[in-house]
Amino acid sequence: MGNTVIHIATVSKVYVDSDVYALNNLSLDIKQGEIFGLLGPNGAGKTTLISILSGLIKPSSGLVEIKGLRYKKDRKTMLQLIGIVPQEYALYPTLTAKENLIYFGAMYGVKQKELRVKVDFLLKELGLYAFKDKKIQSFSGGMKRRINLIAGTLHNPEILFLDEPTVGVDVQSRHVIIDYLKSLNKEGTTIIYTSHHMEEAQEFCSKIAIIDSGEILIKGSPIALIESIKNAQRLEDVYLHLTGEKLRDNV
Amino acid sequence: MYKLWIATQKEFLLLKRDLGGLAVLFIMPLILVVTVTLIQDSSFKQLNEVKIPILFVDHDKDAISETIVNSLKDNGVFQIVTEIEEASVSEETAIKLVLKGKYQLAIVIPSNLTKNLNAKIHKKVGKILDEFGVDATEDSGKEKEIATPEIKLFFDPAAQLSFKNGIKNAIDKMVSKIETQSIYSIFQTELEIEEQLFEQDALISFKEITPNSSVDKMPNSVQHNVPAWTLFAIFFIIIPLSINIVKEKNQGTFVRLKTSPVSYITFYGSKVITYVSVCMLQFVLMLMVGFYVFPYLGLPSFEINGSYILLFIVAFFVGIAAIGLGILLGTVATTTEQSAPFGATLVVILAAIGGVWVPVFIMPEYLQIIARISPMNWGINGFYDVILRDASFVDILPEISLLGGFFVLLFGLSVYYDKVNNNN
Q: What does pTM read for this prediction?
């Protein structure tokens, strides 16, 4: 693996109107080319961490650097380096697939000619070319997830953040999404992804961190994590061993 | 510029595919301006054609009551009702019928009104003539206690204030005329003058003139209604605009844009360009209706005394101000259920305090102060400056500066709110 592209040092986050630490002195380094999985129960702090890394919110304390850059000084450059695939579909329902993608690609500064070629290519790659002129509101959940993914990767980001990119999709769509992400990673994109699919994470990620209550409980390669816990056969065993079986419903 | 161009294209596409929003923006204002102008115009015509029935209870049955009845009849607005089912209307019946809302007004003339008035005047005239050493007739100067005559007006409690004031003024004018006539008549009798001293025509007349060198016509209802309702329609843009922004936030597209290298200027700039274009289109449509549709409906054609360019400049700044308000509302609201009804109510309130429905000068003092800080008031004054007062660019500068400043202030507040809200 390459150099450190993401450096997180003692980052904490407490939201206004809350006295609970969403992130508590969390430190983490992510290297170039890694597929880094952030796993944890609901409310563990995964989305907060992704939001801080993508510049959406500021940490209460601590330091975040992406390729040695900080949001306070180099926001525009940093946003050009990263891509984000949010948990919501984040698309305009009344626009067609192509209109959505042209718009989001242009907002990343991809020039029109290159953008049109790229949009057509990726729509074919993810099996959606036949539906390019259909409005998003007529798409299934799996189709919307794939368009959502393309929208976040049109500008060839060096670092890609994915917040549960395969939630609520069928097996076929999931395979297409994972295969596409693997191909991006092969081309050098560092991927940071959150998921509740333990099996998928075990198979897909090169490194994993399990977090709970805003703190990292364990991190390492999937195999190393399984080996670190006695009698663990799968990543799910490690996860349940560390986070417990108690329900985490919260409002 | 490339990003702004693509973002603006996207905004136009979103708008084009929102048929409900388009209806609110274009069809509703047209229906509104045509309906309101027609109603106002026909009400005015009706007032001249349809007579208002009023009850008349005459206890005097003498010269004054006869003069009042004749004056009311000559006025042409009223139908005098003195009998119901072939029986004279009593005061009690009149009060009951007015309270029930069957009649808007009952006039009760007291008994001996003519006699008492003449006696009072005789007394006063006698005193004056005594001062001049002229012998008055015997009974003119006698010290007698004479009751002050009182004409009673009973109004329907639901009658409009303007109607009440109109009637009171008309009666007052009539009584003054009768009093003057009586005074002249008694002087004439006492001084034994044969020449007719009292004239029907007033000694001083007045003429209504517009203080404008190039205009000698008075503004018509269309000249008032087109700018007023255009302003109203333009401000209604805050509803689809705020819904558009709230939807961006709720469907996650705003989050995606905030994690991309797009400035607030690009994001909101595309919305401003799109919605200002809509405002200008609305304005052109309203003008077209005023110019070409109104004459077909029997209404006066819309006429502009000032410059068309200045009129469009005012419309542009009105649009900008409305868009600033829409952006702030969309930024602060979290659901479309909040933004849509709040936006609609806000426009109605702004129109009310801005003088779109009721002139500002008749409002209470505190509301007049509020009106002066209302963007709709700046807008309507800007329109009237150009349409009715033949204003120059310098004349409309205060209004357009205020409207532009209003946009800058609200846009700044929106960006500030968004930044603070996101860092929490």
A: 0.74
